[in-house]
């Protein structure tokens, strides 16, 4: 599994075959089939691992932040940085129906509920204006996912961003969103 994860991360889905996995892992060509019946099941497992890793990064980013607005920004930055650092895994996440819903805005997914809770907390603290929390969340998700997709799709304006440049761009974009919703 670790070998498949690394292979997809570095070379993409196209480079992954059961034979290539066995060769890379230094095992017999039949060994991967003991764990995964076919390549699709293997890719699903890799996508689930990538989803868990992205969720961990989002959680880590928002932990130990002093206020809701800072946590809100940190989650945006972590999402965009993951796309910049792991574009092939991010792409796989988006293409795997069993895991993509949580990162494409299912109404009740945990990440979205955390974002809404942060918005309410920020509103109660006077850090975020009294606008519809759903609208703020959707605007933030559109901005965040749009930046991530532009990076992964190698849009000409962002195709060669480093992880640090992606962090700066995500932070600047969230500050623009903040200004756009009436905060100073």
What does this structure look like?
The protein has helices at 2-11, 18-25, 39-62, 68-85, 87-95, 97-100, 110-124, 133-152, 163-180. It has 184 residues and is an all-alpha fold. It has a single domain (47-180), classed as Tetracycline Repressor, domain 2 (Orthogonal Bundle), CATH 1.10.357. α3 crosses α5 and α4 (68-85) packs antiparallel against α9. It is elongated and about 60 Å long.
Write down the overall geometry: elongated
Low-confidence stretches: none
Indicate the mean pLDDT.
Answer: 85
Largest sheet: none
Number of domains: 1
Proportion of residues in helical segments:
55-70%
User: What is the level 1 CATH name?
Assistant: Mainly Alpha
SS-based class: mainly alpha
CATH superfamily: Tetracycline Repressor, domain 2
Number of strands: 0
CATH architecture: Orthogonal Bundle
Helix tally equals: 9
Question: In CATH terms, what is the fold-level topology?
Answer: Tetracycline Repressor, domain 2
Q: How far from one another are the termini?
A: 47 Å
Approximate strand percentage: under 5%
Radius of gyration: 18 Å
